[in-house]
Structures are given as structure tokens and as C-alpha cells.
Write a structure and sequence with these properties.
globular; two-stranded antiparallel sheet; mainly alpha; 167 residues
């Protein structure tokens, strides 16, 4: 989507989208290394401390600051490859070939669907496997540290579970 925004003349919007993707990749990297993802103030510091993290943070910085959407996308692809390598190092499924693949007939790339399909198929916990793939965790709904660090988080978690159960 960042490429499409840039093609439509919205470079600022393209960079905002690229920043969101870079943040997501940082959180995935921490997850792959079984590390807690701190709030944004310390996110880059935490990722830099991972094996290969210094190079990854460099690629992610390029993903936000690159001159063109294509340069930003290439940097995202390098960072996504690093995350995929970390997943493989933990025994999670990986794919052979590019991490990003062409988005239909457009010049933009997206995550290879086999990556997501393989990760979903590898979930061994039946309760976790039943969760909808597109919902995410409470940390993806709420970023406010004050909310996440307080007892109100349990009320949010209960609401989340109720919503997921459909009751």
C-alpha cells in the first residue's frame, strides 16, 4: 500500500504506511526471538539487541527514509527476510524463495502467502488455532502504555475474549 500511496502523489502517506510496516516487522522479530516488544520508545533499541539486529534496524530505517517507494520496499524485503530467518532458526516454517511476491499485476510486492499459511498450519495449540487469523492480540488493538500496564488490561482482555467467542 505504501507504493500505491506514493504513486498517487502521497509521499508522506507512503512513509507513514512504511513506518507502520517497519514497526510490525520489529514486533515480529522480537516475537521470533521470544522477546517482549516494548512500547515504541524502546522498540528500536530492543531490536538492535537481537542477533543481526543492527543490520535489521538499518534496513528498517531505510524502509522509512528511502528516497522512493521502491527503495523503501527493497529495504522492507531485506528486513522481512531477516525476520523469516529468525523464524526458521526457532523451528517455525519458512519458505524457499522470496519473502515478498508480486501483488497481482501491480508493481508492488506483499508477503508470500505461503509464509502465513505455513505459520498458521504449524500452530499446535487448538485454542490458539481456532482464533481468527485477522484479529491479532490486544497489543495490536491498543498501543497506549498506560492502558496496557494497568489492571484495566484484564478488562480489555475479557472484552477481547468475549468478542472472539461471538457471545
Amino acid at each position: 500500500m505504501h507504493g500505491r500511496a506514493a504513486d498517487r502523489g502521497d509521499d508522506a502517506g507512503s512513509r507513514v504506511i512504511a513506518g507502520a510496516i517497519a514497526g510490525g516487522l520489529m514486533r515480529l522479530a522480537l516475537l521470533a526471538h521470544r522477546r517482549w516488544a516494548p512500547y515504541e520508545k524502546w522498540l528500536g533499541t530492543a531490536v538492535r539487541g537481537l542477533p543481526g539486529g543492527l543490520a535489521a534496524v538499518g534496513a528498517l530505517s531505510e524502509a522509512v527514509a528511502g528516497g522512493s517507494w521502491a527503495e523503501r520496499e527493497a529495504a522492507m524485503a531485506r528486513a522481512a527476510g531477516w525476520v523469516l530467518d529468525a523464524q526458521g532458526g526457532r523451528g517455525a516454517p519458512v519458505v524457499d524463495g522470496p519473502v515478498l511476491t508480486q501483488f497481482w499485476d501491480r508493481p508492488y510486492r506483499h508477503v508470500e502467502p505461503a509464509v502465513i499459511k505455513g505459520l498458521r498450519a504449524a500452530i499446535g495449540d487448538p485454542d490458539l488455532a481456532r482464533l481468527p487469523a485477522d484479529v491479532g492480540s490486544i497489543d495490536q488493538w491498543v498501543r497506549d502504555v498506560e492502558v496496557l500496564a494497568r489492571p484495566a488490561r484484564s478488562a480489555l482482555a475479557a472484552t477481547y475474549r468475549t468478542w472472539l467467542s461471538g457471545t
